């Protein structure tokens, strides 16, 4: 099974699961955010459950990947049943939506599809350039590191309601007030994840554990890109909460085009390191563009410059150090950086928690 087939399967699953997105909208509009998160959690377990059952019964990786389509079908059908059971009257009696609602929906949906393209373009390149074994080893590491997106799925549910405090009504001043401390904490959180995973991979290589030996040429770049994309998902939510959905779409589209162009221009490159380079390049551009859009909305240019520097240096640190330092020195550097990042993250999250507990100015009645 090649990269094109895998991409088609992912798109098919996404389309079949559309009723779940519609259900999430109605649940969020009625304030049932726990139900939204439960729905997403159920979908995640259903996806992995079908894949593992197919793998155990057939022993075929192709069948396990194909079972993802079945997940989309079941998840979509159950969501459709829930929709018509609890929200059919709400939908039929609702007021006619203004045209701007449809353009906003189109921008949000197109952004989601562009993000999907970013995730699947490398698979198509690897299938076209390398062997199936390389594609399999890539997907293995990709699926493991992408576990961080399990946390990122909370962003559209919890964080979007936090960024729109007045019952979902856009309030740019309140949203701007919330973005800065939240952005700082999440950036360091994703950086810590990248450093921790990279350090673990370095330690395995140092002690000659061959679990990820075939993935090491692109492991650091892939891990950095996956972590950055998790942070970019928050930035997309923040940009959309500020009413700039089209700007988010432009940023994601530019990044997807850049990734596609990079892999298109290096079709015959035998070095597997380009997999990580292409991934990281696209995600750095996406994160930087989104951060610039946020800075233009919040007016905090110095903070944006600081964050861009952290992203550029922090998420490429292990890749650069891996070409310079010895295996022992790389492990110790990773440990020190991960600990420093984790401690910084704890401080930022404590500050954010106090801000929420005490009630920030945006929560005060106007």
> How many E-type strands?
0
Cα-atom Rg, whole angstroms?
21 Å
Q: Helical segment tally? A: 16
Q: What is the total number of structural domains?
A: 2
Helix vs. strand class: mainly alpha
> Mean of residue pLDDT?
78
Keywords:
2 domains, mainly alpha, 0% strand, 366 residues, 16 helices, disordered C terminus
Summarize the structure.
This protein is mainly alpha-helical.
Write the layout of secondary structure elements.
Blueprint: H1 3-16, H2 18-29, H3 33-58, H4 61-86, H5 88-93, H6 99-129, H7 132-145, H8 149-152, H9 155-163, H10 172-206, H11 216-241, H12 245-265, H13 273-298, H14 301-314, H15 317-322, H16 327-358
Question: Any overview of this molecule?
Answer:
By secondary structure, the protein is mostly helical. 83% of the residues lie in helices and 0% in strands. The protein has helices at residues 3-16, 18-29, 33-58, 61-86, 88-93, 99-129, 132-145, 149-152, 155-163, 172-206, 216-241, 245-265, 273-298, 301-314, 317-322, 327-358. It is globular and about 65 Å long. Residues 165-169 and 360-366 have low confidence and may be disordered.
């Amino acid at each position: 099974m090649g990269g094109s087939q895998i991409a088609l399967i992912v798109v098919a699953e996404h389309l079949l699961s559309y009723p779940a997105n519609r259900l999430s909208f109605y649940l969020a509009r009625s304030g049932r955010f726990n139900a939204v998160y439960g729905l997403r959690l159920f979908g995640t377990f259903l996806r992995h459950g079908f894949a593992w059952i197919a793998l155990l019964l057939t022993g075929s990786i192709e069948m396990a990947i194909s079972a993802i389509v079945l997940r989309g079908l079941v998840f979509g059908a159950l969501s459709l049943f829930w929709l018509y059971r609890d929200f059919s009257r709400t939908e039929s009696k609702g007021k006619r939506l203004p045209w701007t609602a449809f353009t906003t929906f189109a921008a949000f949906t197109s952004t989601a599809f562009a993000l999907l393209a970013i995730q699947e373009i490398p698979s198509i390149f690897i299938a076209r350039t390398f062997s199936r074994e390389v594609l399999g080893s890539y997907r293995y590491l990709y699926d493991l590191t992408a576990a961080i997106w399990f946390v990122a799925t909370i962003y559209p549910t919890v964080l979007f309601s936090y960024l729109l405090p007045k019952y979902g009504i856009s309030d740019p001043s309140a949203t701007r007030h919330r973005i800065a401390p939240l952005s700082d904490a999440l950036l360091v959180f994703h950086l810590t994840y990248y450093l921790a995973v990279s350090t673990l991979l370095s330690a395995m290589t140092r002690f000659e554990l061959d679990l990820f030996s075939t993935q090491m040429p692109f492991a650091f770049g892939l891990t950095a890109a996956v972590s950055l994309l998790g942070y970019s998902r928050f930035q997309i939510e923040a940009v959309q909460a500020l009413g700039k959905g089209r700007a988010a779409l432009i940023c994601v589209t530019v990044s997807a085009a850049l990734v596609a162009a990079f892999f298109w221009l290096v079709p015959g490159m035998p070095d597997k390191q380009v997999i990580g380079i292409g991934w990281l390049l696209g995600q750095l551009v996406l994160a930087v563009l989104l951060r610039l859009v946020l800075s233009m909305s919040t007016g905090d240019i110095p903070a944006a410059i600081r964050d861009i520097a952290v992203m550029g240096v922090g998420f490429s640190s292990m890749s650069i150090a891996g070409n310079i330092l010895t295996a022992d020195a790389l492990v110790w550097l990773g440990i020190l950086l991960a600990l420093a990042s984790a401690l910084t993250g704890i401080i930022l999250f404590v500050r954010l928690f106090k801000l929420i507990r005490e009630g920030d100015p945006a929560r005060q009645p106007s």
